[in-house]
């Protein structure tokens, strides 16, 4: 794939004599970020971007200023005859790359969208080629998912099963295989296996292979089937041996797989050209020799016929060939119907090298496509790596995706939610992912500072503006946020007079310090947050309606922790790791304690959870934080009896990252030993019950059951 095939030809250009006013008009009309600059010979000499125009306007350059005085001359360019497979990681950061020919003439522009289109075209082509291969093979091929529903079927399989492709996608494989035991066996296969199936008067030889992902997860099964009805019928008739041989020769030679036939001693009697091509062994060197001799000469890694003769059953092995090929070879014994002795061995050899190569190429194309696509979309994995941002629930994932989507857009944001839900964390996240990340992040809680002091903090003051003012004056937080982000927490508590001043700053982008007449230009992004109902405050007159609409451009409502309990476990895990590291301890939390924390409503939300976890890490003496260590507010909120550990099922994922589950299944001897040890140590059924996270009456009942004497 060459650049010229996918670039945007005949791009809009500027000449160096044209003005920045002309450049601004073209950028705006065509909604693009940059324009190439060429000379009279259409040679590329520079690039003008929106940043150049904005900078010129900021510095009050005349509109007639030629773009040649502003343009960027150090450029990254591509040649139109370059291949798109070349490594352009650094160059593609520009987003839009000028394309020139070998004489330096501008011929087009290549964007990330053009590159994605190129790789999509290549991927579709590869998939089409693979489909053509599947449809052209003689063997029937069917792929099903773990429920038995058909995912893919080729024309040969349609012919063998007598069902059209259209009908197959509406039925389950269970409707074709009436034997439930066989069906369950096929769907539960963990490795490749060959079976014979009688279907609609046909005898099918089917090779079943589990379909697994790269991480080893089984997602379905692929079956390659061959109709051997006629072959078996002829093989049972000794009088038709010659005819059978001719038919077998035809089948063997027409097969893309390598096929080898040996006698009962393992001597090679016949093999097809496919096997000769795979191994590089010509016919005159192998016919009449034992397969073991090929193994001794190092041509193949092991002889399949030897294994079949030893085990007297079908055997499949991986053979490594001296020329580098890797074969999946299946040896099938042909038995005498009367004596059961092996008459011949038929080996089917499939070249895995070619399939692996096609698979690798397809995977590479897929990875490249995903790689470039990830530059346009924010990946969920990147979101989860951000420290302090936990998004396991669907609600928080959607909110996080919204934050990532609006972060680059320089507009006002209003974050709504109860106290402690993490509004400040989201504000910092948006700032870090915005174009203002290099600028300051200035935060202030409007409800925590008195109104008179809040005004001087926000707007600053001139020297001598009031008693106690600094002699040199002081810039306000609005000025300090210039070039960055201003986060106003609890904005609903802002006094009415300051609401007017803030609205003026937002509209005019200028601020005046207290006691001063000089206006100062400011450029900041406003993120506001509140736990109050601003609509009601607007209706009651406590909050200005015009300011509300100014800050409520993009509202984000964060649900309380009680409405997203899916986030509770990962949050506990995160805070536990954080405070273990901070205080240099290794505390864990029992599953019973975690269950009790799940029943709590968390009125203080994430802030309360963080506070409690740190308190437990610092104050708990035992290595495991149990139910008895939890604060009274949690224990009194919603109690629940917990079964004795031996009466509960063993846990699983709760043991990960600090949640320690104590409810393992115990034998009576282990249960008695555990109770005796704890009771001898603490001499109190209440303490034993607290440690185990169960009711005291359960401890008493168990002690009596095992004859353990209690202290009076």
UniProtKB/TrEMBL annotation:
Gene3D superfamilies with a match to the protein in the record: 1.10.8.60, CBS-domain, Homeodomain-like, P-loop containing nucleotide triphosphate hydrolases, PAS domain
UniProt keyword list: Aromatic hydrocarbons catabolism, ATP-binding, CBS domain, Coiled coil, DNA-binding, Nucleotide-binding, Transcription, Transcription regulation
Domain PAC: 188-240
One BP annotation, GO: regulation of DNA-templated transcription
The Sigma-54 factor interaction domain, residue ranges: 389-618
Every CBS domain range: 7-63
One function term, GO molecular function aspect: ATP binding
A Pfam short name: AAA_lid_14
UniProt-listed CDD domains: AAA, CBS_pair_SF, PAS
Superkingdom per UniProt: Bacteria
Domain PAS per the UniProt entry, residue ranges: 126-168, 244-290
Cross-referenced SUPFAM superfamilies: CBS-domain pair (SSF54631), Homeodomain-like (SSF46689), P-loop containing nucleoside triphosphate hydrolases (SSF52540), PYP-like sensor domain (PAS domain) (SSF55785)
Regions annotated as coiled coil: 355-382
SMART domains: AAA (SM00382), CBS (SM00116), PAS (SM00091)
Protein name: HTH-type transcriptional regulatory protein TyrR
Organism per entry: Aneurinibacillus aneurinilyticus ATCC 12856
């Amino acid at each position: 794939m060459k650049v010229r095939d996918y670039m945007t030809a005949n791009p809009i250009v500027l000449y160096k004599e044209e003005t920045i006013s002309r450049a601004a008009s073209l950028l705006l009309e065509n909604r693009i970020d940059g324009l190439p600059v060429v000379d009279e010979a259409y040679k590329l000499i520079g690039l003008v971007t929106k940043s150049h125009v904005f900078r010129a306007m900021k510095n009050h350059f005349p509109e007639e200023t030629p773009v040649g005085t502003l343009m960027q001359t150090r450029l990254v360019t591509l040649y139109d005859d370059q291949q798109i497979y070349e490594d352009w990681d650094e160059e593609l950061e520009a987003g839009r790359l000028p394309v020139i020919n070998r004489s330096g003439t501008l011929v087009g522009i290549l964007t990330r969208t053009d590159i994605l289109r190129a790789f999509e075209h290549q991927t579709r082509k590869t998939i089409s080629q693979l489909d053509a291969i599947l449809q052209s093979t003689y063997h029937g091929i069917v792929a099903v998912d773990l429920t038995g529903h058909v995912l893919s079927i080729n024309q040969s399989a349609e012919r063998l099963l007598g069902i059209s492709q259209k009908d197959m996608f509406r039925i389950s494989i269970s409707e074709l295989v009436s034997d439930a035991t066989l069906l369950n066996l096929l769907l539960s296969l963990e490795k490749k296996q060959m079976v014979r199936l009688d279907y609609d008067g046909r005898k099918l030889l089917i090779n079943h292979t589990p379909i697994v992902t790269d991480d080893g997860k089984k997602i379905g099964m692929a079956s390659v089937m061959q109709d051997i009805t006629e072959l078996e019928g002829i093989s049972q008739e000794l009088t038709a041996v010659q005819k059978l041989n001719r038919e077998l020769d035809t089948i063997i030679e027409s097969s893309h797989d390598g096929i080898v036939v040996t006698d009962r001693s393992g001597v090679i009697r016949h093999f097809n050209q496919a096997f000769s091509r795979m191994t590089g062994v010509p016919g005159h060197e192998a016919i009449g020799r034992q397969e073991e001799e090929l193994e001794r000469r190092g041509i193949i890694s092991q002889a399949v016929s030897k294994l079949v003769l030893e085990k007297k059953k079908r055997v499949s092995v991986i053979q490594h060939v001296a020329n580098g090929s890797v074969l999946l070879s299946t040896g099938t014994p042909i038995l005498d119907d009367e004596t059961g002795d092996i008459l011949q061995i038929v080996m089917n050899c499939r070249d895995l090298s070619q399939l692996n190569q096609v698979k690798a190429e397809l995977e590479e194309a897929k990875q490249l496509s995903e790689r470039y696509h990830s530059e346009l979309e924010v990946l969920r994995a990147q979101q989860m790596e951000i420290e302090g941002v936990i998004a396991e629930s669907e609600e928080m994932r959607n909110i996080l995706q919204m934050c990532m989507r609006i972060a680059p857009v320089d507009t006002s944001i209003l974050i709504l939610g109860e106290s402690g839900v993490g509004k400040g964390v989201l504000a910092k996240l948006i700032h870090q992912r915005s174009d203002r990340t290099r600028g300051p992040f200035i935060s202030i809680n409007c409800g925590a500072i008195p109104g008179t002091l809040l005004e001087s903090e926000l707007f600053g003051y001139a020297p001598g503006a009031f008693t106690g003012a600094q002699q040199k004056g002081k810039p306000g937080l609005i000025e300090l946020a210039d070039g960055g982000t201003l986060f106003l927490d609890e904005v609903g508590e802002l006094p009415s007079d300051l609401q007017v001043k803030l609205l003026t700053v937002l509209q005019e982008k200028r601020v005046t310090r207290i006691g001063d007449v000089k206006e100062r230009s400011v450029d900041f992004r406003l993120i506001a947050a509140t736990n109050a109902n601003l609509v009601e405050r607007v209706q009651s007159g406590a909050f200005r309606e015009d300011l509300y609409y100014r800050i409520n451009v993009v509202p984000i409502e964060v649900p309380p922790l009680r409405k997203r309990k899916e986030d509770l476990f990962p949050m506990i895990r995160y805070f536990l790791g954080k405070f273990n590291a901070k205080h240099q301890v290794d505390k864990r939390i029992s599953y019973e304690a975690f269950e009790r924390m799940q029943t709590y409503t968390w009125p203080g939300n994430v802030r309360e959870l963080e506070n409690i976890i740190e308190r437990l890490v610092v104050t708990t003496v035992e290595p495991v934080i149990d139910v008895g260590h939890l604060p009274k507010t949690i224990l009194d909120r919603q109690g629940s009896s917990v079964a004795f550990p031996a009466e509960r099922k063993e846990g699983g994922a709760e043991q990960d990252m600090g949640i320690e589950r104590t409810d393992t299944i115990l034998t009576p001897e282990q249960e008695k030993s555990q109770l005796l040890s704890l009771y001898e140590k603490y001499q109190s059924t209440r303490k034993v019950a607290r440690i185990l996270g169960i009711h005291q009456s359960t401890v008493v009942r168990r002690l009596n059951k095992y004859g353990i004497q209690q202290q009076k």
